[in-house]
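Let us practice reading a record.
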Amino acid sequence: MVSGSSNKVGDVHETSITIEGDHDHSTTVEIHKVCLPPNKTTFQSIKHYFSEIFFPDDPLHKFKNQKPSKKFFLGLQYFFPILEWGSEYSFKLLKSDVISGLTIASLAIPQGISYAKLANLPPIHGLYSSFVPPLLYAILGSSRHLAVGPVSIASLVMGSMLKEVVSPTEDPTLYLKLALTSTFFAGVFQTSLGLLRLGFIIDFLSKPTLTGFTAGAAVIVGLQQLKGMLGITHFTPKMQIVNVLSSVFSTTKEWSWQTVVMGMCFLIFLLATRHISIKKPQLFWISAAAPLASVILSTALVYAFRAHTSAISTIGHLSKGLNPPSANMLSFSGTHLPLAVKTVIVSGILSLTEGIAVGRTFASLRNYQIDGNKEMIAIGVMNMAGSGTSCYVTTGSFSRSAVNFNAGAQTAVSNIVMAATVMITLLFLLPLFYFTPNVILAAIIITAVIGLINYQEVIKFWRVDKFDFMTCLIAFFGVLFFSVQMGLAIAVGVSIFKILMNVTRPNTMVLGNIPGTQVFQNVGRYGDATRVPSFFILAIESPICFANSAYLQERILRWVREEEERILANKEQDMKTIILDLTAVTAIDTNGLEAIVEIRKMLDKRSYKLVLVNPVGQVMEKLETSKTLELFGERGLYLTVGEAVADISKRSKIEV
């Protein structure tokens, strides 16, 4: 026998009911009130809303209850993290950082030269970009292991987007101006995102999007290097796979056998050292030193046999000296300014995404955190400053950061050591690169971009989420057959479409009781979950807002119709009460409130009682403020599905 009392919102007391089950076993179910959240002023509500959006990490918690002088020093530490760890720096840490700094310098020098050519810039700008930005990051960055400098993806994006409008060979001065201007605006864009704490914008580049994009870009970059690997002089400026392959096979007469032999030998060597380091991580130094060793050896071979290697093109003359000022080359007007801005958006977001992702990866391995917004500021400032010192877009490099990490880097001083090594190279060693063959730079780039093709992640997408797999493929083939920016734009569009689908078409499900418990679960998922006679229990698993309120209204009425048909077909007890479980509804707007009212009216006309269960604080507050709860009466709101079923069953004199 069932006995109990009400659950009116606002009641202070609790009552209980007793459900007599089989074999005279009884269970006491307490009926709890559903409480409103604490009262807040409008200002407090707005403050809470914005703090959750822009300050989820509460960056000002260190400033609480501190003296003004302490707050000032903490503020300096926030913007200049070097002040935080610099006071505890020791000679032991310096030894580790010097070793790791020299190690990544051996990789940064050949990669810097190679990536500058990938961006269609003179090779010297790759070295410039490996000198000034690392120094600034050491002061402003919060990662201990991030090694900054030019990276393949940002170089490719900038090079491909600018080359579509301005030829780097026919008008190199204008091309360089646009590259530097794009770098400056990228820095402004990145710094603004950090200061305004808008880092969540880069989250629209989902992992499937980035995986497909980087794989497609890696293939395009690799195919572009066939120009250097085969010694081709006249090569297509276009980036689509069809045009690239067509250009390769239409210029077979330009192929140089000396170039091909040298390129294949060093490519095999570089791939072998990479394979060794992957299989045995403790031998990381082998793959780290291989690019510089290849440059030195190939340069020596070309110099020694220069009378017989005229078919092998070389870097040629590089002017000695540190970064020349380039602020006078920044252009803030003219017909090409929109191109620079467009390049900024793509390359700026990509470089931010890569830099922050790499920094977080290695921070998690050493159990410390980095501030994404501070990283944006650091990367942005070093790009703004870099644009005035002949540098192009830089960020954190995964390959160099991995080497830095494995070499035992302890702080950002490793970046300073790397920059010092590059400085010495700029001042004294550049003439040694005169005979460095371009084919070795192509081999270094191919080796680097192969690591960007993460086929294991693609297989994982297929197993876990077919939509993510499709997004990955769209990004991949978009880059291959259209363009770098078009492939990225299509993939981002697909990702946003997925978000919209999740919002506009939320999941709803029918709940049933797990026998012997007060637990209610999805009847389609749990085979032993059974429907409760005369009840129809539905759950919504998303916020209810303007984008999905009409759909939810239609879907719930469809659920009701299908349940009526099922009951009629199975000749079961008539449905009388419909329970709507709002546990997973995290928010609701006015459209959602109106939808609930409309659903209730429609069900009333069909003689069904609608009951709401467990609305969260924000939803409960809006239900109360809008006076929607008054329509449901004192028996229309419960804390749990079990309490609702027990109380309504007793009052309707239905034996559960």
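A brief commentary: Residues 1-26 have pLDDT under 50 and may be disordered.
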